[in-house]
Every structure is written in C-alpha cells, then in structure tokens.
Amino acid sequence: MMTGAAMAQTSTAQSPTAAMQATHNILTPERVFADPDINGPKSVGVKLSPDGTLLTWLKPKASNAQVQDLWAVPVKGGEPFLLVDADSLSSENKELSEAEKSRRERMRVSARGVVAYEWSENSQSILLPLDGDIYLVDRATKKISRLTETPGDEVDAKLSPKGGAVAFVRDQTLYLKDLKSGVETQLTPKGEGTTTYATAEFIAEEELARHTGYWWSPLATQIVYQKTDESGVAVAQRVEIGGEGVKIVDQRYPFAGKPNAIVELYVKTIGNDAPVKVDLGSNPDFYLARVNWAKDGKTFYVQRLSRDQHRLDLLQVDPATGATKTILSETSDTWVELNDNFRPLSDGSFIWSSERDGNNHFYYYGADGKLIRQVTHGDWPVDKLADINEKTGELYFEASKDTPIEHGLYKVSFRKAGEPVAITAPGGWWTTSVSGGGAAFIGSYSDPTTPPQSALYDGSGKRLRWIEENKLDASHPYYAYKDTYSAPEFGELTAADGEKLEYYLLKPRNFDPSKKYPVIVSIYGGPASATVKKTWVAASNRLFQEAGFIVFSLDNRGTPGRSVKFGRAIYKKFGQPDIDDQIMGAKWLQSLPYVDGAHIGIMGWSQGGFVTLMAMTAKDTPFAAGAAGAPPTQWELYDTAYTERYMSTPQANPEGYAASDVLNRIDNLKPGALLLMHGMADDNVQLANSTRVMAALQKKGVPFELMLFPGERHGLKGNERNLQRFRLQLDFFTRKLKPKA
Known about the structure:
The protein is α+β, with helices and mostly antiparallel strands and 741 residues long. The protein is built from twelve helices and 44 strands. The protein has a domain of 279 residues: Rossmann fold, CATH 3.40.50.1820. The N terminus is likely disordered.
C-alpha cells in the first residue's frame, strides 16, 4: 500500500499555527485542513423560537470545528451568546451505540457535541439529545436538566406537541417520559433481534431521506410508529478494520434484487394498551416513504412507494380503525421522485408536487383528491416547499427558476393564477427556513465571492439581523487569499441529445493563456447531487489551483435539479450517458489552447468514484489519471432502493448491470493511472466494491496505487485524515499529470 508522499511544496508537515504563519497569500493543505475553518464561522441548524423572539443555531468551536455548541441571539437586538457549551456535557471518549452511529452516518452528521435540538411549542425550553442521552434547557435560567441516564442510548428524541412529555427510542423500543412526574412508559412491544420499533430502517434513512420511525399527532394524544422486521434481509459479514484491531459486523444489508425489510405501521393512543394496525395493502414489498398528520389530528396520510418505484400512492388513514383509502397516485415508467412537498391544509385540501408535465411543479388538490389547479408552470423545476400562508393563499418555495446554477426563494398564489415572485436576490445560492406563513425566514447564502452567511429576513426579503455575517474582511481566515485565486468561470456544453450541460472552470494561480496546463475534473455525476452551482468555492479546489492545475466540473445527464428528460437519461444505464458526457467534457477541454490535452485527470468519491472508474476504463479514454474514492463497482453490491430506482433489478436489467460493472472493462485501464481509496469500515458502499478491483488488477499484473482508511466509514472525518487524503491526491496528480515535475 502506498502512503503517498506529499508534493515538494508541502512535504514537511507543519502544525496549523506554523502553517498560518507561513507565506501569507498561498494556501497549503495544512492551512485548509486546520482550525479555525478557512471558510469562516458558520451556523448550522438555525431555528427561530416559536414565539419569534430568539434565534438559535449550532456553531462549531473556533478551536475545533468538529465540536458544535448551541448559540442564541435575540431577534430585536443584543449580542449572540453561548447557550450550551458542548464540552460541559459531551466527551470525545463517549462510545455511541451502533444504532446512533448508523443514524449519524445516514444523516451525514460528522460533528460531535450538540448535533440536534428542538424548541418546545411554548418557546420556554429546548430539547437537547446529546451523546445518547437527553437534556432539557430552560430558556429563562439556562439551567440544563438531564432527562435520561441509562446504559443504552436514547435515539431520535422528540417533544410532544404540547410539551409535557418526550418520546425516544432505546434498545429498539419506543418509550415516553412524562416531564412533570418523571415516569417512563414503554409504548411499543420490546424490540429484539431483527425486530425494531419506531426506527427508520436502513434503506429509509440512506435512500428515502426519512430519518424517523414515529410521528406525534398534533394533539399529542396518539403516536404512529413503524415495526420493522429485518429477518429476511441478507446478512453481510462486514470486516471493520481499525487502527487498534479488527471486528466482524453482521450487517443486514438489502442488496439490489434481494429482499427488503418488512415494515408495518401502528397507531398508539397514549394511555391505551392496544395499538391499531394500519392497512397498507396485501403486498408487503413496498417502501414506507412518508407519514404526515392532518392539522386537526383526525386523520393522517401515508405515502406508499412500490418496490419498483413506478407508483407512489397517497393514502388517507383513519387512526381509530387503521382503514386506508387511496386519494392520489403518481406513476412513471422510470421512477417517481420522492420529496417533502406534500402539505395538508386546514380544510382538508392539500399541496402536492409532481413531475407529470416534464418538470417538478406544485398542484393544489381538494380534500377528495380531485385536482383544483396546477400552481406553478414552466420549463424549470420547483425544489422545496418552504411554507404556506392559508390566509393569503400564498405558497413559498425554493427553486432554480432562471438557471440551474442559482437557487432562490419565491412565492406564488395557490388559489389563483399568477407568476412566482422572487423574494431573494439573484446571483448565488440560497437555502431558507420560512416561518409564520412567510412573515420571516432564515436565509443562508453564498456565491463564488461571498463565503456562507446567514441572517433573519422579513417576508419581503429585507434583512432584520445577521446570524453569521461571515464578512470577508481583514479578520476573516480567507482574507489573505481572496485576491490570489480566480473565481470560477461558468458555461454550458451541448450533449449528444441536445441537452445543455452546466460546467465551471477554475484556472491556476498566475494563469498565463500562452501556456498549457493539466486539468483535474472533479465530479460526482450521480442523481443525488449536482456540483455546478454559484456557491463559495471549496478551499480544497483552491489547492489544485495553487498546484498549477485547471479544475473543471461538469454536471452530466442524470444529475438532479433539471427536467425529467435530463434526469431520466440514465435510467437502466449507469455508466453510459453519464460517462459519455464526461468524456465529451474532457474532449472539449482538449480543444482549449491553454489545456495540456494529454494530461487530464478525474477524481470523485462515492458515485463520483464510480464515474471516475468508468471514465478511466472507457475505450480510448481521454483521462490520463484518476483518483476514485469509495466507488460502487458492481451495482449488485449496492442497496435496493437506490440501485433499483435507477437501474431496475439485476434480474430485470442484466445488460445494464453488466455494462456498469467496472471489471467488464478493466482491461482498458492504463497501468499506473489509478489511485483507489476506501474506508475500511464502510457500511454504505462496502469495501468489497474496491477489493474486487484490487484482485482483478493484481491478477492482470496492472500496477495501481491504493489508500485504505482504517476505521473510516463512507466519508472521512476530521482535519487530519482529510489533510492526508489531499496531500496524497496532490502528490498523485502531480506525478501523473506533470511529468516534468
């Protein structure tokens, strides 16, 4: 295994302090992966108290960005203050349960300390789950009370809507604790073995963006919970290799084409021993996608997704009997895209979004499930339903309306025809949290010259106060480098089918158009994420600019945020149109007078690792070197919901699976051109995806470079490991793409 010596300019490790005192305006890996964060202070999980008077958020410590504290600031003036110091409650030596580790991995939570919190409905207290225990913070006194202290971890804690109790999952079982009496009650049967209660199954968390398995009714009198039986799911013996030893984990992993967990749904009335089973149909092979209560608590709704994901049914449920009726169905000959845009209204009508006209748009339905009107129209997709004002009939939503590379907040009437009105200014990327029926919103914004900042705004978009201004002034960690590196250049290429593909290009420091430069193509390339956005540039990309590389990224067909036609081009064809687009992008780069066309590299992680390997093994590939991290290399080895959504099953699409298997084209890989990386405890893209590539290349006598990360799961955590990884990649691409160096 190669250790990857760093390139000459960074070959001697420096402490973060020494690195910051080094050459003033040249970024080094040591500075990028050090504290304080080079991007400046950031706010995570910002919330407005229900009474609208206090803002709260999670803020990484300046001394250690991996630990988060809870901060607050009054809306109407005053300085921000520390509400909960994580160090007073948290310990880095705390060993979390496997359930909590898995939950955090599925939610992509890598920080420690305060990672979640919830306001009480009366704004007087804050529920604080932390390191497997539950605390309650009194707003007035700032006193912190510990609610649980047991050997097991309390997971997914939620206050009741009336604030008098807290529910949580411990040891696969749902419990309720009365906050006044302190009495704890077991709400579900005892979970054990392969049976769990009130917890989202692996596939729901990883692929359906559902991270809970129970739902309080609005009146706090009932809880809907799921029962999960994993006995039919295949056991994958996963070897977790860490720095201190090895352990074998028997993980229930639903491989593509194989059985899923069986999920049932029950309604529990508080104080009643007999739960009511919900009728979800006679076919148990489906996905429980979403559960939403009606505002009056008299009914609730279930979104049931068929196993092939061609049909999504909206079921209305009677909590008293568990009886259901289908009030709406969406169908597709590829897949139905899930979202969180369903919103029941007070009179029983509801808002829904659908891609039925070729783009995702909002629709307004009556309580009987009959369409009243289509709310938004046009050759652009809506993204997130942010809030609704039932009194004015206005719907607030996020979208990339005018261009796929910008994102903003809009409002539109759902009761009468009209065009959306932009609330946020164009030019960059906004994410929002709207409250009070559009009365105010928390807005986070960045663009290529503005680091991420957050503020509170009124309904018209007027800023009321900063949360984290993160101003790029002389006190900002990035200020010394702000004029050193060029901003990205954005543009479009045209795919073979006429679709426009967005790209950005970063030129090296001290760019000279008369010279030729090597290129690194940085990609993800899958349907879960786009990379070409008008956002703040990742400092890690600046490292490649500093090292004399052009950095290029292209969103190929199949990436999200575009039309149905654009997204569905990869259906049953992973490794085909997506790779064609990346190769077209590389050939376009070769046509540029300042590009060294013989030295173009490509890199990516997860699906980006797959795209990297497929691009590197294409016949007559234009890529001279590639760094693939945690790549799926055979889609039969990945999970059901993700893989079957885009590829159908191995049984129904054997040709597509064969065409997307890296080993079936491994003979095209150039000797010495690959750097392969993988976490040795990866429970998502399991290590077998990479070991099969290692074995095949060794059998063929083809040299490659390898870096394995002991103890790491799907994403690398912490400055130290990421510093090592980027030193490794800089060294690899310097040797492969700069032969004279």
